[in-house]
Amino acid sequence: MRTEEAAFHSDDELVAMIRQDDAGAFEAVYNKYASQLFHAANAILKDREACEDIIQELFTDLWIKRQRLNIHNLKAYLFAAARNNVLMTIRSGKIKIDISELEQLVAQSTASDGINEKELQQCIDRNVAMLPQKCRTIFILSREEKLSHKEIASQLNISSKTVENQMTIALKRLKSSLGDFMFFFL
Questions:
Q1: Nearest 10 degrees: CA dihedral of 91, 96, 101, 107?
Q2: How would you class 105 by CB atoms within 10 Å of its CB: exposed for 0-12, middle for 13-18, buried for 19 or more?
Q3: In 3D, which of 11, 17, 50 has the Cα closest to residue 33?
Q4: Residue 26 exposure: Cα atoms within 13 Å on the Cβ side
Q5: Residue 23 burial class via C-beta count within 10 angstroms: exposed 0-12, middle 13-18, buried 19 and up
Q6: N or C: at which end does the chain have fewer Cβ atoms within 10 angstroms?
C-alpha cells in the first residue's frame, strides 16, 4: 500500500498492516508520530543527536518486531517506548539531566504506569529523607515549596551561595542514588 493511502487508516488498522509487512503502513506511522516522539524526548534530554538515535532505534525495533506486535494503543505504545529509551539513555550515563526534568518525566507518565510512578516517587522521597538535614530542608524548600535560592537564603538566614552549594550536593546525591532504581524501574 502507498503511504498516502495508509494515512487514512486508523492506528489499529496500521498495526495490523505492519504485521503483514506493509512498508507503506509503517511509513505512515513513522510520518504521523516520529516528530512528536522526537520533541517529547528532546524536552527531557535537550540533545538533538541522542533523541534522533532514540527515535530511529524505536522505529527500527518496531519494524523488526512487527510480526510479534500485540499493541492495543499505538500512540501510548510508542510514547511509552520512547520514554523507556530516554530513561535507559539517562541510566547509561551518556546524558546528564537535572532531577527536576526527571520529575517532569515521571509526571508525564500515562495512567497505566501509575504503579511505576508511585514506586519512583517513593524512591525519590526515601532518598530525599536520607539527605543531611540542612541539605534536605533546602531541597524541599526549592522543589516542593518552589522558593528561589534568594528566598531560601533569607528564610534560613544563610547566604545564597550556601543554598546553591547545598542544592548541588542534593542533586548529585539523588542522581547517584536514583541510578540503581532507574535500572530496576526499566
A1: -10
A2: buried
A3: 11
A4: 18
A5: middle
A6: C
pLDDT at 84 > cutoff 50? yes
Confidence of residue 157 (pLDDT cuts 50, 70, 90): very high
DSSP codes joined into one string, 53-116: HHHHHHHHHHHHTGGG---S-HHHHHHHHHHHHHHHHHHHTSS---HHHHHHHHHT--GGGHHH
Residue 82 has pLDDT above 80, yes or no: yes
The residue with cell 511505576 is 116
Q: What's the confidence (pLDDT) of residue 78?
A: 92
CB 41 within 8 A of CB 26: no
- What CA–CA distance (Å, rounded) separates 50 from 146? 30
Helix (H) or strand (E) holding 136: helix 133-143
Under 8 Å between Cβ of 186 and 87: yes
Which range among 15-24, 134-143, 176-185 shows the weakest confidence by mean pLDDT? 176-185
- Which of 59, 51, 50, 53 lies closest to 31 in space, CA to CA? 59
Of 21, 15, 8, 24, residue with least CA distance to 78? 15
**Rounded distance between C-alpha atoms, residue 62 and residue 78, angstroms:** 9
**Which of these, 170, 114, 115, 118, lies nearest to 142 by C-alpha position?**
170
